Amino acid sequence: MTQPLRYSPGALAPDLLRAGAGVLVCGMIASVVDVDSWAFIVFIGLAVVFAGFGALTLHRGRLRILVSADDVLAHPGAQCLRWAALCGFTLDYYSTRRDREGGWMQLTLTDADGVRLRVDSRLTGFSELVARAVGAALDNSVQMTPTTLENLESLGIPLSSARAGER
To answer: Domain residues of the chain, as ranges?
Structure first.
């Protein structure tokens, strides 16, 4: 993979709208209730949570991930996760509906140096990153949970062909 992986602005726009709406609505409610009331504290707290979610979303929008044969580098933050030191690999699925039709996947990678990289399926090139990470996990004999194995299968990445498609 030579192109940097990133989150497209269109994929993050709904989260930014939710964060902005949450801050606006909670801030407006907090501005009309008595400052000494519990409602003020609750709505100011919720506004802070929404603002934090917006800041995290903006950070994702700036994130660039460079994948090489030896490592994966995330900017900003300059996190460098070495494939040879990969010791943790999980692929989780978060459903938004009971029928499990809507939702997203989240990949979490950890190396022996304590570097942790967490990305979700809205990242461009997510499947390719997962396939490369599976190859490294197999090379390093990283244990995978049954849930991770199920999610790999649903993503169309069988473990038998992960090494063949990684390079």
So the answer is: 5-62, 66-165
